[in-house]
Amino acid sequence: MCFLIHGIVRMILAKVKSINPSKLFLISFHLLFLLFWVQGCTNNPATGKKSISLNTMAEEEKIGRSEHPKILRTFGGEYNNLRLKNYIRTIGNKLANVSELPNINWKFTILNSKEVNAFAVPGGYIYVTRGLIALANNEAELAAVLAHEIGHITALHPSSRRATGTLTGIGVLASGIIFGRAGSEISDLIGRYSMARYSKSQEFEADLLGVRYLSRANYEPKAMASFLRTMNSFSKYTKKIAGEMGGESEMARIFASHPRTAARVERAIKIASEPKAVRQTNRITYLKMIDGLLYGDTPKDGIIQNQTFIHPSYQFKITFPMGFKVINRSDSVMARHADNSQIQLRLEKKLKNKSMTRYLSQTWGRHHKLLNHERIVVNNMAGATATSVVVKNGRAFDIRFVAINGTKVLIQLVFTSPKNYTGKHATSFKETAYSFSQLSVKQANIISGQRIRVTTVKKGDTLSKLAQKMEVKNYKEECLMALNGLTKFNKVRTGQLIKLISR
Strand ranges (DSSP E) for 422-462? Predict the structure, then answer.
Protein backbone atom coordinates (compact mmCIF):
# COMPACT_ATOMS: atom_id res chain seq x y z
CA MET A 1 0.00 0.00 0.00
CA CYS A 2 2.82 2.39 0.87
CA PHE A 3 4.50 1.72 -2.51
CA LEU A 4 1.20 2.49 -4.23
CA ILE A 5 0.84 5.78 -2.37
CA HIS A 6 4.42 6.74 -3.21
CA GLY A 7 3.70 5.97 -6.86
CA ILE A 8 0.57 8.12 -6.90
CA VAL A 9 2.43 11.02 -5.31
CA ARG A 10 5.21 10.78 -7.94
CA MET A 11 2.65 10.76 -10.76
CA ILE A 12 0.93 13.87 -9.38
CA LEU A 13 4.23 15.68 -9.02
CA ALA A 14 5.19 14.76 -12.59
CA LYS A 15 1.93 16.16 -13.94
CA VAL A 16 1.65 19.23 -11.70
CA LYS A 17 2.82 21.61 -14.44
CA SER A 18 -0.07 20.61 -16.70
CA ILE A 19 -2.79 20.87 -14.10
CA ASN A 20 -5.60 23.35 -14.70
CA PRO A 21 -5.17 26.20 -12.16
CA SER A 22 -8.87 26.02 -11.28
CA LYS A 23 -8.34 22.46 -10.02
CA LEU A 24 -5.08 23.17 -8.26
CA PHE A 25 -6.63 23.65 -4.81
CA LEU A 26 -8.47 20.32 -4.91
CA ILE A 27 -5.41 18.51 -6.18
CA SER A 28 -3.23 20.12 -3.54
CA PHE A 29 -5.64 18.95 -0.81
CA HIS A 30 -5.46 15.35 -2.00
CA LEU A 31 -1.71 15.57 -2.37
CA LEU A 32 -1.34 16.75 1.20
CA PHE A 33 -3.59 13.86 2.34
CA LEU A 34 -1.42 11.35 0.50
CA LEU A 35 1.76 12.84 1.87
CA PHE A 36 0.23 12.49 5.34
CA TRP A 37 -0.12 8.79 4.72
CA VAL A 38 3.30 8.47 3.17
CA GLN A 39 4.98 9.77 6.31
CA GLY A 40 3.25 6.96 8.20
CA CYS A 41 4.78 4.29 5.95
CA THR A 42 7.73 2.67 7.65
CA ASN A 43 9.83 -0.43 7.08
CA ASN A 44 8.91 -2.74 9.92
CA PRO A 45 11.99 -4.36 11.50
CA ALA A 46 10.00 -7.38 12.71
CA THR A 47 8.20 -8.30 9.49
CA GLY A 48 10.42 -6.65 6.89
CA LYS A 49 7.29 -5.19 5.33
CA LYS A 50 6.14 -1.65 4.77
CA SER A 51 3.67 -0.69 7.51
CA ILE A 52 1.35 2.25 7.99
CA SER A 53 1.79 4.05 11.27
CA LEU A 54 0.66 7.60 11.84
CA ASN A 55 2.42 7.89 15.17
CA THR A 56 5.92 7.88 16.59
CA MET A 57 6.73 5.40 19.37
CA ALA A 58 6.35 8.24 21.87
CA GLU A 59 2.87 8.94 20.49
CA GLU A 60 2.02 5.22 20.59
CA GLU A 61 3.07 5.09 24.23
CA LYS A 62 0.88 8.12 24.94
CA ILE A 63 -2.12 6.31 23.40
CA GLY A 64 -1.49 3.23 25.54
CA ARG A 65 -1.00 5.33 28.67
CA SER A 66 -4.32 7.07 28.02
CA GLU A 67 -6.21 3.80 27.50
CA HIS A 68 -4.66 1.98 30.46
CA PRO A 69 -6.83 3.39 33.30
CA LYS A 70 -9.97 2.95 31.19
CA ILE A 71 -9.10 -0.69 30.57
CA LEU A 72 -8.50 -1.28 34.27
CA ARG A 73 -11.87 0.25 35.15
CA THR A 74 -13.64 -1.81 32.49
CA PHE A 75 -11.99 -5.17 33.10
CA GLY A 76 -12.11 -5.55 36.86
CA GLY A 77 -8.94 -3.66 37.71
CA GLU A 78 -5.49 -5.12 38.22
CA TYR A 79 -5.02 -8.44 40.00
CA ASN A 80 -2.88 -7.38 42.91
CA ASN A 81 -0.61 -10.31 43.68
CA LEU A 82 2.88 -8.81 43.82
CA ARG A 83 4.69 -12.16 43.48
CA LEU A 84 2.66 -13.14 40.41
CA LYS A 85 2.92 -9.63 38.90
CA ASN A 86 6.71 -9.73 39.13
CA TYR A 87 6.75 -13.24 37.66
CA ILE A 88 4.63 -12.24 34.64
CA ARG A 89 6.68 -9.07 34.16
CA THR A 90 9.91 -11.11 34.17
CA ILE A 91 8.59 -13.50 31.51
CA GLY A 92 7.24 -10.65 29.40
CA ASN A 93 10.47 -8.64 29.53
CA LYS A 94 12.49 -11.75 28.70
CA LEU A 95 10.47 -12.10 25.49
CA ALA A 96 10.33 -8.38 24.69
CA ASN A 97 14.12 -8.12 25.03
CA VAL A 98 14.61 -10.59 22.15
CA SER A 99 12.05 -8.81 19.96
CA GLU A 100 12.82 -6.11 17.38
CA LEU A 101 11.61 -3.42 19.81
CA PRO A 102 13.49 -4.16 23.05
CA ASN A 103 13.89 -0.52 24.04
CA ILE A 104 10.25 0.58 24.31
CA ASN A 105 8.70 0.75 27.75
CA TRP A 106 6.87 -2.60 27.79
CA LYS A 107 4.17 -2.98 30.43
CA PHE A 108 2.55 -6.29 31.41
CA THR A 109 -0.66 -6.22 33.43
CA ILE A 110 -2.76 -9.00 34.98
CA LEU A 111 -6.47 -8.12 34.77
CA ASN A 112 -8.76 -9.28 37.56
CA SER A 113 -11.15 -11.04 35.18
CA LYS A 114 -12.24 -14.67 35.17
CA GLU A 115 -12.50 -14.70 31.37
CA VAL A 116 -9.73 -16.32 29.32
CA ASN A 117 -8.21 -13.51 27.27
CA ALA A 118 -5.12 -11.51 26.39
CA PHE A 119 -4.63 -8.45 24.21
CA ALA A 120 -2.27 -5.65 23.24
CA VAL A 121 -2.68 -1.87 23.08
CA PRO A 122 -0.36 0.57 21.25
CA GLY A 123 2.75 1.60 23.14
CA GLY A 124 3.74 -1.86 24.42
CA TYR A 125 0.81 -2.39 26.80
CA ILE A 126 0.12 -6.13 27.12
CA TYR A 127 -2.80 -7.48 29.16
CA VAL A 128 -3.54 -11.01 30.34
CA THR A 129 -6.46 -12.10 32.53
CA ARG A 130 -6.15 -14.25 35.63
CA GLY A 131 -8.62 -16.58 33.88
CA LEU A 132 -6.05 -17.23 31.17
CA ILE A 133 -3.23 -17.65 33.71
CA ALA A 134 -5.34 -20.30 35.47
CA LEU A 135 -5.77 -22.21 32.20
CA ALA A 136 -2.08 -22.35 31.20
CA ASN A 137 -0.25 -25.47 32.39
CA ASN A 138 3.34 -24.32 32.28
CA GLU A 139 5.45 -21.20 31.93
CA ALA A 140 6.06 -21.83 28.22
CA GLU A 141 2.31 -21.75 27.48
CA LEU A 142 1.89 -18.40 29.21
CA ALA A 143 5.05 -17.17 27.46
CA ALA A 144 3.46 -18.23 24.15
CA VAL A 145 0.46 -15.99 24.83
CA LEU A 146 2.65 -13.03 25.77
CA ALA A 147 4.94 -13.62 22.78
CA HIS A 148 1.94 -13.63 20.44
CA GLU A 149 0.71 -10.31 21.82
CA ILE A 150 4.22 -8.85 21.64
CA GLY A 151 4.18 -9.97 18.00
CA HIS A 152 1.08 -7.88 17.36
CA ILE A 153 2.89 -4.83 18.76
CA THR A 154 6.16 -5.36 16.87
CA ALA A 155 4.21 -5.99 13.65
CA LEU A 156 2.41 -2.67 14.30
CA HIS A 157 -0.99 -4.35 14.00
CA PRO A 158 -2.72 -2.07 16.55
CA SER A 159 -1.16 0.96 14.88
CA SER A 160 -2.04 -0.04 11.33
CA ARG A 161 -5.60 -0.91 12.28
CA ARG A 162 -5.87 2.43 14.07
CA ALA A 163 -4.65 4.13 10.90
CA THR A 164 -7.21 2.32 8.74
CA GLY A 165 -10.07 2.63 11.22
CA THR A 166 -10.27 -1.10 12.08
CA LEU A 167 -8.87 -1.36 15.57
CA THR A 168 -7.72 -4.51 17.32
CA GLY A 169 -9.90 -6.59 19.57
CA ILE A 170 -9.54 -7.50 23.17
CA GLY A 171 -12.39 -9.93 23.38
CA VAL A 172 -15.00 -9.84 26.07
CA LEU A 173 -15.84 -7.88 29.16
CA ALA A 174 -14.82 -9.04 32.58
CA SER A 175 -17.39 -10.76 34.69
CA GLY A 176 -19.01 -9.42 37.84
CA ILE A 177 -21.41 -6.61 38.58
CA ILE A 178 -20.29 -3.26 37.28
CA PHE A 179 -21.46 -0.49 39.58
CA GLY A 180 -21.55 2.99 38.15
CA ARG A 181 -19.51 2.21 35.05
CA ALA A 182 -22.04 2.34 32.26
CA GLY A 183 -21.10 5.76 30.96
CA SER A 184 -19.97 7.03 27.60
CA GLU A 185 -16.33 6.35 28.43
CA ILE A 186 -16.97 2.62 28.63
CA SER A 187 -19.05 2.61 25.48
CA ASP A 188 -16.31 4.47 23.68
CA LEU A 189 -13.66 2.06 24.91
CA ILE A 190 -15.65 -0.99 23.91
CA GLY A 191 -16.38 0.54 20.54
CA ARG A 192 -12.70 0.99 19.88
CA TYR A 193 -11.37 -2.32 21.18
CA SER A 194 -13.96 -4.94 22.06
CA MET A 195 -14.70 -7.74 19.63
CA ALA A 196 -13.00 -6.15 16.61
CA ARG A 197 -11.15 -8.82 14.70
CA TYR A 198 -7.59 -9.31 13.66
CA SER A 199 -7.36 -10.79 10.19
CA LYS A 200 -6.14 -14.36 9.68
CA SER A 201 -2.96 -13.00 8.12
CA GLN A 202 -2.30 -10.74 11.12
CA GLU A 203 -2.91 -13.58 13.58
CA PHE A 204 -0.55 -15.83 11.61
CA GLU A 205 2.06 -13.08 11.49
CA ALA A 206 1.79 -12.63 15.27
CA ASP A 207 2.18 -16.43 15.64
CA LEU A 208 5.32 -16.40 13.48
CA LEU A 209 6.82 -13.59 15.52
CA GLY A 210 5.67 -15.17 18.78
CA VAL A 211 7.39 -18.45 17.91
CA ARG A 212 10.52 -16.51 16.99
CA TYR A 213 10.59 -14.82 20.40
CA LEU A 214 9.83 -18.09 22.22
CA SER A 215 12.76 -19.77 20.46
CA ARG A 216 15.13 -16.90 21.16
CA ALA A 217 14.12 -16.93 24.84
CA ASN A 218 14.68 -20.71 24.99
CA TYR A 219 11.02 -21.65 25.52
CA GLU A 220 9.37 -24.65 23.91
CA PRO A 221 7.60 -23.22 20.80
CA LYS A 222 5.16 -26.15 20.71
CA ALA A 223 3.62 -24.65 23.85
CA MET A 224 1.77 -22.20 21.60
CA ALA A 225 -0.13 -25.06 19.95
CA SER A 226 -0.68 -26.99 23.19
CA PHE A 227 -2.23 -23.96 24.88
CA LEU A 228 -4.53 -23.40 21.92
CA ARG A 229 -5.72 -27.00 22.22
CA THR A 230 -6.33 -26.44 25.94
CA MET A 231 -8.34 -23.31 25.11
CA ASN A 232 -10.38 -25.32 22.61
CA SER A 233 -11.10 -27.99 25.21
CA PHE A 234 -12.07 -25.36 27.78
CA SER A 235 -14.28 -23.68 25.18
CA LYS A 236 -16.24 -26.92 24.73
CA TYR A 237 -16.69 -27.15 28.51
CA THR A 238 -17.91 -23.53 28.80
CA LYS A 239 -20.20 -24.09 25.82
CA LYS A 240 -21.97 -26.82 27.78
CA ILE A 241 -22.39 -24.51 30.75
CA ALA A 242 -23.51 -21.59 28.58
CA GLY A 243 -25.99 -23.83 26.73
CA GLU A 244 -27.62 -24.72 30.02
CA MET A 245 -27.92 -21.04 30.85
CA GLY A 246 -29.35 -20.15 27.48
CA GLY A 247 -26.40 -17.96 26.57
CA GLU A 248 -23.31 -17.91 24.39
CA SER A 249 -19.95 -19.18 25.54
CA GLU A 250 -17.54 -16.28 26.08
CA MET A 251 -14.75 -18.57 24.84
CA ALA A 252 -16.61 -18.96 21.56
CA ARG A 253 -16.46 -15.16 21.20
CA ILE A 254 -12.74 -15.23 21.88
CA PHE A 255 -12.20 -17.75 19.11
CA ALA A 256 -14.32 -15.62 16.79
CA SER A 257 -12.18 -12.56 17.45
CA HIS A 258 -8.91 -14.50 17.26
CA PRO A 259 -9.11 -16.69 14.09
CA ARG A 260 -6.41 -19.20 14.97
CA THR A 261 -6.30 -22.98 14.71
CA ALA A 262 -3.83 -25.49 16.15
CA ALA A 263 -2.85 -26.49 12.58
CA ARG A 264 -2.07 -22.88 11.66
CA VAL A 265 -0.04 -22.41 14.83
CA GLU A 266 1.89 -25.64 14.20
CA ARG A 267 2.66 -24.37 10.69
CA ALA A 268 4.02 -21.17 12.23
CA ILE A 269 6.17 -23.26 14.59
CA LYS A 270 7.71 -25.16 11.66
CA ILE A 271 8.45 -21.94 9.76
CA ALA A 272 9.67 -19.70 12.57
CA SER A 273 11.22 -21.97 15.18
CA GLU A 274 14.94 -21.57 15.68
CA PRO A 275 16.91 -24.75 16.59
CA LYS A 276 17.98 -25.12 20.22
CA ALA A 277 19.25 -28.12 22.12
CA VAL A 278 17.01 -27.75 25.16
CA ARG A 279 13.62 -26.10 25.42
CA GLN A 280 12.11 -24.90 28.68
CA THR A 281 8.52 -25.39 29.86
CA ASN A 282 9.09 -24.77 33.60
CA ARG A 283 5.89 -26.59 34.52
CA ILE A 284 6.63 -27.16 38.22
CA THR A 285 7.74 -23.54 38.77
CA TYR A 286 4.62 -22.27 37.05
CA LEU A 287 2.14 -24.45 38.91
CA LYS A 288 3.65 -23.54 42.27
CA MET A 289 3.43 -19.87 41.28
CA ILE A 290 -0.31 -20.00 40.50
CA ASP A 291 -1.27 -22.15 43.50
CA GLY A 292 -3.97 -20.14 45.32
CA LEU A 293 -4.85 -17.99 42.28
CA LEU A 294 -8.39 -16.60 42.44
CA TYR A 295 -10.68 -18.49 40.06
CA GLY A 296 -14.11 -17.48 38.80
CA ASP A 297 -16.08 -14.60 40.31
CA THR A 298 -14.30 -11.97 42.35
CA PRO A 299 -15.80 -11.82 45.86
CA LYS A 300 -15.79 -8.02 45.93
CA ASP A 301 -18.01 -8.03 42.80
CA GLY A 302 -20.29 -10.78 44.02
CA ILE A 303 -20.23 -14.55 43.76
CA ILE A 304 -22.78 -17.25 43.00
CA GLN A 305 -23.19 -20.19 45.39
CA ASN A 306 -25.73 -22.66 44.05
CA GLN A 307 -28.85 -20.46 43.45
CA THR A 308 -27.77 -17.63 45.74
CA PHE A 309 -25.96 -14.48 44.64
CA ILE A 310 -23.86 -13.01 47.45
CA HIS A 311 -22.25 -9.57 47.39
CA PRO A 312 -19.85 -9.12 50.34
CA SER A 313 -18.98 -5.50 49.49
CA TYR A 314 -22.60 -4.34 49.60
CA GLN A 315 -23.47 -6.91 52.26
CA PHE A 316 -26.49 -8.62 50.71
CA LYS A 317 -27.66 -11.92 49.30
CA ILE A 318 -30.58 -12.98 47.14
CA THR A 319 -31.75 -16.45 46.12
CA PHE A 320 -33.06 -17.29 42.65
CA PRO A 321 -35.64 -20.03 42.00
CA MET A 322 -34.72 -23.63 41.26
CA GLY A 323 -34.89 -24.38 37.57
CA PHE A 324 -33.32 -21.02 36.68
CA LYS A 325 -29.70 -21.00 35.55
CA VAL A 326 -27.87 -18.14 37.24
CA ILE A 327 -24.91 -16.32 35.69
CA ASN A 328 -22.94 -13.31 36.91
CA ARG A 329 -22.54 -11.03 33.88
CA SER A 330 -20.53 -7.87 33.34
CA ASP A 331 -23.40 -5.52 34.11
CA SER A 332 -25.97 -7.68 35.87
CA VAL A 333 -26.91 -11.05 37.31
CA MET A 334 -29.14 -13.06 34.99
CA ALA A 335 -31.27 -16.08 35.79
CA ARG A 336 -32.91 -17.90 32.87
CA HIS A 337 -35.49 -20.66 32.56
CA ALA A 338 -35.95 -23.00 29.63
CA ASP A 339 -39.41 -21.53 28.96
CA ASN A 340 -37.81 -18.09 28.24
CA SER A 341 -38.73 -16.63 31.61
CA GLN A 342 -35.89 -14.69 33.18
CA ILE A 343 -34.83 -12.54 36.11
CA GLN A 344 -32.36 -9.67 35.88
CA LEU A 345 -30.68 -7.98 38.83
CA ARG A 346 -28.85 -4.65 38.60
CA LEU A 347 -27.33 -2.36 41.21
CA GLU A 348 -27.84 1.36 41.67
CA LYS A 349 -26.80 3.91 44.27
CA LYS A 350 -28.80 3.82 47.49
CA LEU A 351 -31.55 6.42 47.61
CA LYS A 352 -31.70 9.03 50.32
CA ASN A 353 -34.90 10.83 51.26
CA LYS A 354 -36.88 9.75 48.21
CA SER A 355 -40.06 7.75 47.84
CA MET A 356 -39.49 4.32 46.27
CA THR A 357 -42.76 4.52 44.34
CA ARG A 358 -41.70 7.90 42.98
CA TYR A 359 -38.28 6.47 42.04
CA LEU A 360 -39.93 3.57 40.23
CA SER A 361 -42.44 5.68 38.31
CA GLN A 362 -40.39 8.82 37.63
CA THR A 363 -36.79 7.58 37.38
CA TRP A 364 -36.25 3.92 36.65
CA GLY A 365 -39.58 3.16 34.97
CA ARG A 366 -40.30 6.51 33.32
CA HIS A 367 -39.96 5.05 29.80
CA HIS A 368 -42.34 2.16 30.53
CA LYS A 369 -46.10 2.06 30.77
CA LEU A 370 -46.30 0.88 34.37
CA LEU A 371 -49.41 -0.53 36.01
CA ASN A 372 -50.36 -1.80 39.47
CA HIS A 373 -47.99 0.40 41.49
CA GLU A 374 -47.48 -0.88 45.01
CA ARG A 375 -45.29 -0.12 48.01
CA ILE A 376 -43.58 -3.12 49.58
CA VAL A 377 -41.33 -3.78 52.56
CA VAL A 378 -38.65 -6.47 52.24
CA ASN A 379 -36.90 -7.44 55.48
CA ASN A 380 -37.43 -3.92 56.86
CA MET A 381 -36.20 -2.28 53.63
CA ALA A 382 -38.45 0.02 51.60
CA GLY A 383 -39.37 -1.04 48.10
CA ALA A 384 -41.83 -0.62 45.27
CA THR A 385 -43.21 -2.77 42.48
CA ALA A 386 -45.20 -2.33 39.27
CA THR A 387 -46.10 -4.36 36.20
CA SER A 388 -46.02 -3.89 32.45
CA VAL A 389 -46.50 -5.82 29.21
CA VAL A 390 -44.25 -5.90 26.16
CA VAL A 391 -44.64 -7.61 22.80
CA LYS A 392 -41.49 -9.06 21.23
CA ASN A 393 -41.55 -10.82 17.87
CA GLY A 394 -45.32 -11.12 18.10
CA ARG A 395 -45.20 -12.72 21.56
CA ALA A 396 -46.53 -11.05 24.71
CA PHE A 397 -44.43 -10.99 27.88
CA ASP A 398 -45.47 -9.96 31.39
CA ILE A 399 -42.94 -7.84 33.26
CA ARG A 400 -42.70 -7.07 36.95
CA PHE A 401 -40.38 -4.33 38.17
CA VAL A 402 -39.17 -4.45 41.78
CA ALA A 403 -36.89 -1.86 43.41
CA ILE A 404 -35.59 -2.34 46.96
CA ASN A 405 -33.54 0.28 48.81
CA GLY A 406 -31.00 -1.76 50.76
CA THR A 407 -28.68 -0.68 53.54
CA LYS A 408 -25.76 -0.02 51.16
CA VAL A 409 -27.18 -0.33 47.66
CA LEU A 410 -30.45 -0.19 45.74
CA ILE A 411 -31.33 -3.27 43.73
CA GLN A 412 -33.41 -3.41 40.56
CA LEU A 413 -35.18 -6.67 39.77
CA VAL A 414 -36.92 -7.30 36.45
CA PHE A 415 -39.03 -10.47 36.22
CA THR A 416 -40.03 -11.42 32.67
CA SER A 417 -42.19 -14.32 31.55
CA PRO A 418 -44.24 -15.27 28.49
CA LYS A 419 -47.89 -14.64 29.31
CA ASN A 420 -48.77 -18.33 29.41
CA TYR A 421 -46.04 -18.95 32.05
CA THR A 422 -46.67 -15.97 34.34
CA GLY A 423 -48.88 -17.91 36.72
CA LYS A 424 -46.38 -20.75 36.89
CA HIS A 425 -43.59 -18.46 38.14
CA ALA A 426 -45.58 -15.89 40.17
CA THR A 427 -44.85 -17.46 43.55
CA SER A 428 -41.15 -18.15 42.88
CA PHE A 429 -40.68 -14.59 41.56
CA LYS A 430 -42.19 -13.19 44.75
CA GLU A 431 -40.01 -15.47 46.89
CA THR A 432 -36.91 -14.25 45.03
CA ALA A 433 -37.75 -10.59 45.70
CA TYR A 434 -38.43 -11.25 49.37
CA SER A 435 -35.23 -13.34 49.74
CA PHE A 436 -33.19 -10.13 49.44
CA SER A 437 -31.50 -9.69 52.81
CA GLN A 438 -28.56 -7.94 54.37
CA LEU A 439 -25.38 -9.64 55.58
CA SER A 440 -23.66 -8.69 58.79
CA VAL A 441 -20.07 -7.49 58.58
CA LYS A 442 -18.97 -10.83 60.05
CA GLN A 443 -20.96 -12.79 57.47
CA ALA A 444 -19.61 -10.66 54.61
CA ASN A 445 -16.01 -11.05 55.76
CA ILE A 446 -16.04 -14.85 55.60
CA ILE A 447 -17.24 -15.00 51.98
CA SER A 448 -14.43 -16.31 49.82
CA GLY A 449 -14.06 -17.09 46.14
CA GLN A 450 -12.80 -20.21 44.43
CA ARG A 451 -9.06 -20.79 44.09
CA ILE A 452 -6.69 -22.81 41.96
CA ARG A 453 -5.23 -25.46 44.25
CA VAL A 454 -2.24 -27.42 42.97
CA THR A 455 -2.12 -30.92 44.43
CA THR A 456 0.05 -34.00 44.02
CA VAL A 457 -1.58 -37.10 42.52
CA LYS A 458 -1.54 -39.93 45.06
CA LYS A 459 -1.36 -43.64 44.42
CA GLY A 460 -4.77 -44.92 43.33
CA ASP A 461 -6.01 -41.52 42.15
CA THR A 462 -7.89 -41.44 38.85
CA LEU A 463 -9.38 -38.61 36.84
CA SER A 464 -12.80 -39.59 38.14
CA LYS A 465 -11.66 -39.57 41.79
CA LEU A 466 -9.85 -36.26 41.43
CA ALA A 467 -12.87 -34.73 39.68
CA GLN A 468 -14.97 -35.26 42.81
CA LYS A 469 -12.70 -32.76 44.59
CA MET A 470 -13.57 -30.05 42.05
CA GLU A 471 -15.88 -27.44 43.60
CA VAL A 472 -17.86 -26.78 40.43
CA LYS A 473 -21.55 -27.52 40.10
CA ASN A 474 -21.67 -29.53 36.86
CA TYR A 475 -19.36 -31.42 34.50
CA LYS A 476 -16.65 -31.88 37.13
CA GLU A 477 -14.53 -34.31 35.11
CA GLU A 478 -14.78 -32.23 31.90
CA CYS A 479 -13.70 -29.16 33.87
CA LEU A 480 -10.76 -31.03 35.43
CA MET A 481 -9.54 -32.28 32.06
CA ALA A 482 -9.95 -28.90 30.34
CA LEU A 483 -8.19 -27.07 33.17
CA ASN A 484 -5.20 -29.43 33.01
CA GLY A 485 -4.97 -29.92 29.25
CA LEU A 486 -5.95 -33.60 29.57
CA THR A 487 -8.21 -35.93 27.60
CA LYS A 488 -10.12 -39.05 28.63
CA PHE A 489 -7.22 -41.06 27.19
CA ASN A 490 -4.73 -39.51 29.63
CA LYS A 491 -3.88 -41.36 32.83
CA VAL A 492 -2.66 -39.34 35.78
CA ARG A 493 0.63 -40.49 37.32
CA THR A 494 1.50 -40.80 40.99
CA GLY A 495 3.51 -37.74 41.97
CA GLN A 496 2.12 -35.62 39.10
CA LEU A 497 1.03 -32.06 39.91
CA ILE A 498 -2.53 -31.25 38.94
CA LYS A 499 -4.81 -28.22 39.27
CA LEU A 500 -8.08 -28.40 41.20
CA ILE A 501 -10.72 -25.78 41.98
CA SER A 502 -11.74 -25.32 45.61
CA ARG A 503 -12.50 -22.66 48.20
Answer: 437-438, 450-456
